[in-house]
Batch of 3 targets.
Target 1
Amino acid sequence: MKLYYTPGACSLAGHIVAAEGKLALELEKVDLKSHTTETGADYYQVNPKGYVPALRLDDGALLTENGAILPFLGDKAGSMPEGIDRYHALEWIAFINSEIHKSFGPLFQGGDGEAAAKAKEKIRGRLKLVEEKLSGEYLMGGSFTPPDAYLFVMLRWCEKFGIDLSGLAGLADFRKLMFARVGVAKALKEEGL
């Protein structure tokens, strides 16, 4: 499998899930400004959407979007829950994607002033809800699952954009726990972070 990624982007979540599961993963870095890969390929030819992540499967098929890639890699890695817990994990991935990830848009577009302040307020509010719902060390309790990788990336972005997470001790503990994981360290190192 080949993961098309940009260092520190949301593609890091899939990279972490694969690293945690010791999955063999070829990496190809994408420059999102020029839409070219590190081998010089036109990234739009890989993924017409033009953004990461994209996962080229061994049979040549392509998956895009964290909502598909994270469960797929989690299934391969053995970290995706079964039964009703599977649907709760999918629920977390969907929430992180639509309510947290999307809210960073104005910040990545260089917005400042009122737009940036509103985005930061919304993100903090959504993360406060996550804090209230943490059911243990991880989102799904005592074990790492794919939504944990996605949440970790969002918390890294909060640091990047100076979003105040004071008073959210559960998220601070979660972040420390994630930094201590071998797969997280491996993915960060491979992306040069």
Note: Residues 113-133 form the longest helix (21 residues).
Target 2
Amino acid sequence: MTEVRIAPVRWGVLGAANIALKKVIPGMKKSALADVVAIASRDIAKARTAANELGIPRAYGSYQELIDDPDIEAVYIPLPNHLHVPWSIRAAERGKHVLCEKPIALTAKEARQLLEVRDKTGVKIGEAFMVRTHPQWLRVKEIVASGRIGELRLISGHFSYYRRDPADIRSRVEWGGGALMDVGCYPITISRWLFGAEPIEVVGLIDRDSDMKIDRLTSGLLRFERGQATFSCAMQLVAYQAVQIFGTTGRIAASFHSTPGDEARILVDDGSDLRGGGIETITFDLVDQFSLQADRFSEAIRGVGIVPVSLEDAMGNMSVIDALFRSAESHGWERPGS
């Protein structure tokens, strides 16, 4: 088979957030398909410092200057959640493809604006869920589809860390802060993806910080036609993450994501005994998940492959999050998208 060679996509980065500087841009720079040529910050000194440290040719003192640069084909947006949709729209209207951090919007209704601008401009717009391009999760998807663990019935996840800082953008309710938007979105997207369906209804329980009003501990139950998904997420608990995937005859254990440079592994249990005598450990080569994310989105821009997490998929995730917030207020089951 002839290997398809594509020209690297010229990327700009809107914002100098930590995730961009420490994880995503270093990962993109390892990609042969992504060329990071510019970074923007509202503070030009911050943009220049980041550009110098990361070897980026151009620095801009405003987001608008970057998206006005005709040399840039695509932008990565790691801005605070409330700025995702406005700047994604502005970039798309300037003809830029957009890879926007999760969650892509504050609500599913807000995210719908992106569908309209995507269809009008013809650009690619996707949500940056790097777990969906990691070999670990692609293998989990294959194992579930193969029937090795029987019929999928239950997914149980937990994702937490401790950070209580009023100055942190994740501590601002009006900016889309809180545990559910920050890390609860991971078990939701994994559950929807593995079941290959949207939940019929959901119920949520939320404990809010008394001062900042953000959800600091959230639990959710999602009912699918073929099974259930449960999860808990927190931003004022010990750091921990785990996923258990239960079928009628077997089980898979995994983590949502690994630190670049760490070995990823999953455990596949055939259910033969409670002591784990039937467990197989599957390990994966060291990869940078942010580099893989850049590869897949750049390929989609060049017409090779598809956007890994489409706008329709992102809206489905936001609909579940919306319903969980409604459920916490109504104290009952809510239907996503209603």
Note: The longest strand covers residues 236-247.
Target 3
Amino acid sequence: MLTPVLMKKGRPGTLITILTDDQHRPALERLLLTETTTLGIRIRRDQRTCLDRSHVTVTTPYGEIRIKLGSLHGDVLNIAPEFEDCRTAAATHSVPVKQVFHAATSSYLQTKQ
């Protein structure tokens, strides 16, 4: 990920952010030090908490659409129709993608009532 930043004395710079695991870190450090003008790099460890993910398929007027579910301790907190499914269905039926997206979301919510 590249982020434009202001460096010392107001000079423009680019912050390079790389997400990697410990196994690949040395190679990426070497790459940064040999292929950029930097004289050093900062290393920071981050942690990430994720929802449990699963999929269900719903039926819409535009066909079958997969829905991603994000759950925490069995409670569904987030739902998201698969974009590629929505895009394909929208192209097939000559409707906007957001129309298919809303139809898929509505279909899922109706099955949960």
Note: The helical segments are 25-35, 83-93, 97-111.
